[in-house]
Every structure is written in structure tokens, then in C-alpha cells.
Amino acid sequence: MTTATTTRHAAGVADAVKVYGSGDTAVRALDGVSVGFPAGRFTAIMGPSGSGKSTLMHCAAGLDTLTSGAAFIGDTPLSTLDDRRLTLLRRDRVGFVFQAFNLIPTLTVAENITLPLDLAGAKGSREWIDALVDVVGLRDRLHHRPAELSGGQQQRVAVARAFAGRPDVVFADEPTGNLDSRSGEEVLNLLGRAVRRMDRTVVMVTHDPVAAAHADEVVFLADGRLVDRMESPTADKVLDRMKAFDTKGGRS
Ligand SMILES: Nc1ncnc2c1ncn2[C@@H]1O[C@H](COP(=O)(O)OP(=O)(O)OP(=O)(O)O)[C@@H](O)[C@H]1O
Ligand SMILES: [Mg+2]
């Protein structure tokens, strides 16, 4: 090592290629992407529609497999795991937030939050769940059911659920896509607080420069390739970078 400190990555991919289909209809959704998502940081993935953002997230999270290359959670290469171990790794070390909140309608807020732990037969730490409930601001809604909550509140429950098992990394695909801007802002602040106050790692796919500005760093995809990275993004800087995609196809 030539540097005094090295970055620990909570997840990442190396030389990742993902081809959907075959022959004439084959789509190269990832075309040789190498990227690490640093532990304890909030990373946003941006790029035009169809650039491979969701594919990258799904492959990095072990929800889908690469055609070639490697995906890692921590130091664990996912290709070395059989189905059972992969399922356990996803359950114990990865959290997810989706655009559709995916709460269980018959369960209360409290039950939805602890669902991953209950399924795992794990107790979890009561202090941790308690702290989470405060961070997401749902203490007075714990015994409500999802249908009794606003969209923003439901997504806050989904965020709390994603962090309940203290996963190494939480992946979020367009978590504010179904929310108005004020509720979206609350969810983004929440993800930022989880990273900065609770030392979590978040990787978020978004179309929205304002959402991306909540991250510590933005990585840009175009045509299945990593084309840029931006530290300390602002909405204006991200918007300017996105405009370049329209004029020169994103390759810089
Ligand atoms: N299951 C699939 N079968 C075939 N092609 C697919 C499949 N999933 C994605 N693709 C293709 O792979 C490419 C990348 O898709 P992906 O969903 O990763 O893009 P994205 O950047 O998330 O786009 P969006 O911003 O619209 O969500 C696209 O051309 C898409 O049509
Ligand atoms: Mg997508």
C-alpha cells in the first residue's frame, strides 16, 4: 500500500458485464463497470433511462447475477455463494428500499419495521430499533397500518425496515419516485441521517438532481458504462453534468 488509508467498500462490482437476451436481441445493460461503494457513505447512481442503473444495483445487491465480472458485498464475492448462502447474505447484510413501498398491509408500522428480524428469527437490538423509530419520526404511528399513512410516511417505514437488521448496505431504487417533493425531501434527509448519524451505507438510484445532491458522491452511468464521478454534488452541478448526456451521449 502506498497510501496511509484505504477505502473500505460496503459493496461493489469489478468488470461487471450484464447481457440480457441473446443473438440479435441481446442488450448489453452493463458494459464493463467497476465501482466500489464506500462504507459509511451515501452514493447516488445517476444516468439516462436505460443506462443500466437498476441493473447495476440489482447485480451489486445479489438480486440478479452478472454475465461476467464480479460483485461483492463487503469482501464476499457473490459468485462464490450457493443459493442458500446468497439468500442468507441478502437477508442479513443488505437492506432494500423500492419505489413502491412494499409494506405488508395487514401488519402495523412496528411489525413492518421488525419483519426482516422476525423472519430471521433474530431479536435485534431493542435500542437500535428504538433509535430508528425516532430517526424516521414514526413513534406516534407505530400501531397504525400502512393504509392509514401518507405515501411519505409509508416510505419512512420502508426505510426503517431496510435498516432494522443493521445491514452493511442499503440499496434504494428511486425511493422518492412516488412521492411529492416535500415527502421526498423527508425521505432523503432520513437516508442522509442514517449515513451520517448512524454510520450506515446507502446506495441510491435516482433520476432527480435534487435527490442526488443529498449524497456524498454521485456516479454517472451512460450506455452501461461508468462515465463520471462527482464528490460533494449540488443539484446545479448534477443537472449540468446530466445535460452533457443529451449533447454527447454522456461519454466524456
Ligand atoms: N429483464 C430484462 N430483459 C431484457 N432487457 C432488460 C431487462 N432489464 C433491463 N433491460 C435492458 O437493459 C438496459 C438497462 O436497463 P436498466 O433497467 O438497468 O436501466 P435504468 O438506468 O435503471 O433505466 P430507468 O432510469 O428507466 O429505470 C435497458 O436497455 C433495458 O431495456
Ligand atoms: Mg431503473
From TrEMBL:
Under the heading InterPro entries, the entry gives:
AAA+_ATPase, ABC_transporter-like_ATP-bd, ABC_transporter-like_CS, ABC_transpr_LolD-like, MacB-like_ATP-bd, P-loop_NTPase
Listed A to Z, the keywords are: ATP-binding, Nucleotide-binding, Transport
User: What CDD domains does the record point to?
Assistant: ABC_MJ0796_LolCDE_FtsE
Provide the ABC transporter domain boundaries. Answer: 11-248
GO terms, molecular function:
ATP binding; ATP hydrolysis activity; transmembrane transporter activity
Instruction: Return the PROSITE patterns for the record.
Output: ABC_TRANSPORTER_1, ABC_TRANSPORTER_2
* UniProt KW Nucleotide-binding keyword: yes
Q: What are the record's GO terms for cellular component?
A: membrane protein complex; plasma membrane
Q: Which residues form a coiled coil?
A: none
Q: Does the keyword Nucleotide-binding apply?
A: yes
Task: State the protein's name.
Answer: ABC transporter ATP-binding protein
> Which organism's genome codes for this protein?
Streptomyces olivochromogenes
